[in-house]
């Protein structure tokens, strides 16, 4: 080991594995990169001739994939073959929050990670470097090591932690020029050699000073910490948004004023209807669970409040709609602009839209959704996953539209849930003309021009003012 890497396998062709490996392949033509997944449909979509059908939408991703696919980037369901041939194996499978048993609702479900480790151990006939790419609780590498060492064929494994810091919607950009790459490994000589082998891969396009190396535990914990700090900023500004609404302060002005303090900085201070995505909530709950398991109750409570605040922000947004619409939305059409958890992605995991919709469905509203990248079946699946009412009821009360003007037609109110740029460019006069009056807009992302809308005749409400 420690030799130059020429063959990489990645288990998991999702939002993290797909873009990350595509960029590695594009930047390292001498490395054969094979991405495997159990999900046959997903692999077929990655191999689709038509690049519009890739399973992950990210600006710039299709170009990168078309550049490398078939040359040194391959997508396949032949997991064992790819593991066998690789010198380095990335584990990039999902680690959802447990929905059953001990730690239900908080702990990360590591069953997919364990399955991967067992499969790698069973198949490997020579020494390999195993890289944890998925976000994992601190000390997961210990479990992975134990499985590899106890079920393998006597070959040697090095385990590295290399957490992904890309944000969806800017994944390609983040991968091409990351603030930093973090690699954690064992402190002994073999561990350091493995770290170097992976660092050399990234050094093909990333300056060495941005490649940070630590021990495994620091690396695992840094990922959770980074997401917790980012989410905390959003919850902090969201907490202030509610106070702004009561006091006449404007949250955007407050954010600008504090953001110019270089100790605070301007980023991640955008008040919203609440953060979503596959990472923030999951990672914080995970952190809470880990803290509790060490008996650190104050630490756990401190971080849990970030999630509690986020839930509150979603619930209060829905409550404001109900209250403003004369305390009843029963039978009223409410148009949702946006369903994805942020713009420029088709990912809807933990999106604020889901919970806001659920709250309004409790009140018997009819929800009409338009999102430029999210289809009806995903919206229904997200609602059904909550298990708060039957599939049939969800399908009856919530409908997806292909056209934003159709979604808004005859609506009593419009709620902006995602900050897609195109929403700003719509013909708002046309939308107004076709709505019930008074026509309400609730801007959960503070992207619309409030003055323009008020001049047209809308009753305009925005987070934090
Ligand atoms: C603070 C604000 O920084 C300043 O802008 C405002 O005008 C007044 O309040 P001050 O209280 O004088 O200033 O000191 P500051 O440097 O902010 O430190 C406050 C406390 O936080 C100190 O006890 C300091 O030791 C502690 N601190 C600060 C840390 O423990 N860690 C840090 O990283 C920074
Ligand atoms: C996040 C981290 O940014 C990334 O480093 C990590 O690897 C994975 O988790 P992601 O979930 O893709 O990335 O998106 P991010 O841009 O962080 O946004 C998360 C959520 O916070 C979104 O719902 C977004 O709309 C919301 N948000 C973000 C705000 O509401 N206000 C902000 O100022 C910033
Ligand atoms: P992320 O956002 O972390 O990338 P995704 O859910 O988008 O999460 O992707 C994870 C992928 O990992 C899924 O496509 C899933 O089918 C795949 N996967 C999970 N377990 C295994 C496994 N044991 N072998 C191969 N693929 C797996």
From TrEMBL:
<feature type="binding site">
    <location>
        <begin position="134"/>
        <end position="135"/>
    </location>
    <ligand>
        <name>NAD(+)</name>
    </ligand>
</feature>
<dbReference type="GO" id="GO:0006024">
    <property type="term" value="P:glycosaminoglycan biosynthetic process"/>
</dbReference>
<keyword id="KW-0560">Oxidoreductase</keyword>
<comment type="function">
    <text>Catalyzes the conversion of UDP-glucose into UDP-glucuronate, one of the precursors of teichuronic acid.</text>
</comment>
<protein>
    <recommendedName>
        <fullName>UDP-glucose 6-dehydrogenase</fullName>
        <ecNumber>1.1.1.22</ecNumber>
    </recommendedName>
</protein>
<feature type="binding site">
    <location>
        <begin position="223"/>
        <end position="227"/>
    </location>
    <ligand>
        <name>substrate</name>
    </ligand>
</feature>
<dbReference type="InterPro" id="IPR017476">
    <property type="entry name" value="UDP-Glc/GDP-Man"/>
</dbReference>
<keyword id="KW-0520">NAD</keyword>
<comment type="similarity">
    <text>Belongs to the UDP-glucose/GDP-mannose dehydrogenase family.</text>
</comment>
<dbReference type="InterPro" id="IPR036220">
    <property type="entry name" value="UDP-Glc/GDP-Man_DH_C_sf"/>
</dbReference>
<feature type="binding site">
    <location>
        <position position="349"/>
    </location>
    <ligand>
        <name>NAD(+)</name>
    </ligand>
</feature>
<dbReference type="InterPro" id="IPR014026">
    <property type="entry name" value="UDP-Glc/GDP-Man_DH_dimer"/>
</dbReference>
<dbReference type="GO" id="GO:0003979">
    <property type="term" value="F:UDP-glucose 6-dehydrogenase activity"/>
</dbReference>
<feature type="binding site">
    <location>
        <position position="42"/>
    </location>
    <ligand>
        <name>NAD(+)</name>
    </ligand>
</feature>
<feature type="binding site">
    <location>
        <position position="263"/>
    </location>
    <ligand>
        <name>substrate</name>
    </ligand>
</feature>
<feature type="binding site">
    <location>
        <begin position="12"/>
        <end position="17"/>
    </location>
    <ligand>
        <name>NAD(+)</name>
    </ligand>
</feature>
<feature type="binding site">
    <location>
        <position position="37"/>
    </location>
    <ligand>
        <name>NAD(+)</name>
    </ligand>
</feature>
<feature type="active site" description="Nucleophile">
    <location>
        <position position="279"/>
    </location>
</feature>
<dbReference type="InterPro" id="IPR008927">
    <property type="entry name" value="6-PGluconate_DH-like_C_sf"/>
</dbReference>
<feature type="binding site">
    <location>
        <position position="168"/>
    </location>
    <ligand>
        <name>NAD(+)</name>
    </ligand>
</feature>
<dbReference type="Pfam" id="PF03721">
    <property type="entry name" value="UDPG_MGDP_dh_N"/>
</dbReference>
<dbReference type="Pfam" id="PF00984">
    <property type="entry name" value="UDPG_MGDP_dh"/>
</dbReference>
<dbReference type="GO" id="GO:0006065">
    <property type="term" value="P:UDP-glucuronate biosynthetic process"/>
</dbReference>
<feature type="binding site">
    <location>
        <begin position="93"/>
        <end position="97"/>
    </location>
    <ligand>
        <name>NAD(+)</name>
    </ligand>
</feature>
<comment type="pathway">
    <text>Nucleotide-sugar biosynthesis; UDP-alpha-D-glucuronate biosynthesis; UDP-alpha-D-glucuronate from UDP-alpha-D-glucose: step 1/1.</text>
</comment>
<dbReference type="GO" id="GO:0051287">
    <property type="term" value="F:NAD binding"/>
</dbReference>
<dbReference type="InterPro" id="IPR036291">
    <property type="entry name" value="NAD(P)-bd_dom_sf"/>
</dbReference>
<dbReference type="InterPro" id="IPR001732">
    <property type="entry name" value="UDP-Glc/GDP-Man_DH_N"/>
</dbReference>
<feature type="binding site">
    <location>
        <begin position="164"/>
        <end position="168"/>
    </location>
    <ligand>
        <name>substrate</name>
    </ligand>
</feature>
<feature type="binding site">
    <location>
        <position position="445"/>
    </location>
    <ligand>
        <name>substrate</name>
    </ligand>
</feature>
<feature type="binding site">
    <location>
        <begin position="341"/>
        <end position="342"/>
    </location>
    <ligand>
        <name>substrate</name>
    </ligand>
</feature>
<feature type="domain" description="UDP-glucose/GDP-mannose dehydrogenase C-terminal">
    <location>
        <begin position="335"/>
        <end position="450"/>
    </location>
</feature>
<feature type="binding site">
    <location>
        <begin position="279"/>
        <end position="282"/>
    </location>
    <ligand>
        <name>NAD(+)</name>
    </ligand>
</feature>
<dbReference type="InterPro" id="IPR014027">
    <property type="entry name" value="UDP-Glc/GDP-Man_DH_C"/>
</dbReference>
<dbReference type="InterPro" id="IPR028356">
    <property type="entry name" value="UDPglc_DH_euk"/>
</dbReference>
<dbReference type="Pfam" id="PF03720">
    <property type="entry name" value="UDPG_MGDP_dh_C"/>
</dbReference>
<feature type="binding site">
    <location>
        <begin position="270"/>
        <end position="276"/>
    </location>
    <ligand>
        <name>substrate</name>
    </ligand>
</feature>
């Amino acid at each position: 080991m420690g030799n130059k890497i020429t063959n990489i396998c990645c288990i998991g062709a999702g939002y993290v594995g797909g873009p990350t490996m595509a960029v590695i392949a594009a930047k390292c033509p001498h490395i054969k990169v094979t991405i495997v997944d159990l999900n046959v449909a997903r692999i077929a979509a990655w191999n689709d001739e038509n690049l519009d059908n890739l399973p992950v939408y990210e600006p710039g991703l299709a170009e990168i994939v078309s550049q490398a696919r078939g040359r040194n980037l391959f997508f396949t369901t032949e997991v064992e073959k790819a593991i066998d041939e690789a010198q380095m194996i990335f584990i990039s499978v999902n680690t959802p929050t447990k929905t059953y048993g001990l730690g239900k609702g908080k702990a990360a479900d590591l069953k997919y990670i364990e399955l991967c480790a067992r499969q790698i151990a069973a198949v490997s006939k020579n020494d390999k470097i195993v890289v944890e790419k998925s976000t994992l609780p601190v000390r997961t590498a210990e479990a992975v090591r134990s499985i590899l060492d106890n079920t393998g064929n006597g070959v040697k494994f090095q385990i590295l932690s290399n957490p992904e810091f890309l944000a969806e919607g800017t994944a390609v950009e983040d991968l091409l020029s990351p603030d930093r790459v973090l690699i954690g490994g064992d402190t002994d000589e073999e561990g350091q050699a493995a770290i170097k082998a992976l660092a050399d891969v990234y050094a093909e396009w990333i300056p060495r000073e941005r490649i940070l190396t630590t021990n495994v535990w620091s690396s695992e914990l840094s990922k959770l910490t980074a997401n917790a700090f980012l989410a905390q900023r959003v919850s902090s500004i969201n907490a202030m948004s509610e106070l702004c609404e009561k006091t006449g302060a404007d949250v955007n002005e407050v954010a600008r004023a504090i953001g110019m303090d270089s100790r605070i900085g301007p980023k991640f201070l955008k008040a919203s209807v609440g953060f979503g995505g596959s990472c923030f909530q999951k990672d914080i709950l995970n952190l809470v669970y880990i803290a509790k398991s060490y008996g650190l109750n104050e630490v756990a409570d401190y971080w849990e409040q970030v999630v509690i605040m986020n839930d509150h922000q979603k619930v209060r947004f829905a409550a404001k709609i109900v209250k403003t619409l004369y305390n009843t939305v029963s039978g009223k059409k409410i148009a949702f602009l946006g369903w994805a958890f942020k713009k420029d992605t088709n990912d809807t995991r933990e999106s604020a839209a889901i919970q806001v919709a659920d709250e309004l469905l409790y009140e018997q509203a009819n929800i009409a959704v338009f999102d430029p990248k999210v289809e009806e079946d995903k919206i229904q699946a997200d609602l059904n996953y909550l298990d708060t009412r039957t599939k049939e009821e969800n399908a009856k009360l919530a409908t997806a539209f292909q056209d934003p003007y159709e979604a808004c037609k005859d609506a009593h109110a419009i709620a902006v849930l995602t900050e897609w740029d195109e929403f700003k460019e719509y013909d708002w006069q046309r939308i107004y003309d076709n709505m019930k009056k008074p026509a309400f807009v609730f801007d959960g992302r503070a992207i619309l021009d409030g003055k323009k809308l008020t001049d047209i005749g809308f009753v305009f409400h925005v987070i934090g003012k």
